[in-house]
Amino acid sequence: MDDTNVLVVDRSQEALQTKLSLVMKQLETWFLKNDLIINITKTVAMSFHRCRSKLTYKPRILLQNKEIEYKSEVKFLGLCITEN
Predict the structure, then answer these.
(1) 79 - beta bridge partners?
(2) pLDDT tens per residue across span 52-77
(3) For residue 62, is it left (φ>0), alpha (ψ between -120 and 50) or beta?
(4) Which of 44, 43, 53 is nearest to 71 (CA)?
(5) Bridge partners of residue 21, in order along the sequence
């Protein structure tokens, strides 16, 4: 599997972090059960927002006990995607 996208949304920082941690654990379990390997070096996170508003809170994302880096721009299936 080349690309996987996950969208987690919540207005509360605490609820967002809790949801995100749960989803990441579920993803790890699913990948393991399906004999899929995650390339941590190519895995990044992006926090979407409107052009003029910058998000100050970016929850901590752990995958296989390693923190995932946030990027403001990423190339996905040949398209350049930005956070705004």
Answers:
(1) 76
(2) 666 667 888 998 889 999 898 988 88
(3) beta
(4) 44
(5) none
The Cα–Cα gap between 65 and 51 comes to 32
Residue 3: other Cβ atoms inside 10 A: 7
What single-letter DSSP state applies at residue 56? -
What distances in angstroms separate CA 80 from CA 19, 72, 83, one per listed residue?
A: 27, 11, 10
Q: Where are the domains of the chain?
A: 13-82
pTM for this model (two decimals) = 0.68
Q: pLDDT tens digit string along 4-52?
A: 566 676 677 888 888 888 888 998 999 999 999 888 888 888 887 776 6
Tokens of 72: 């403001």
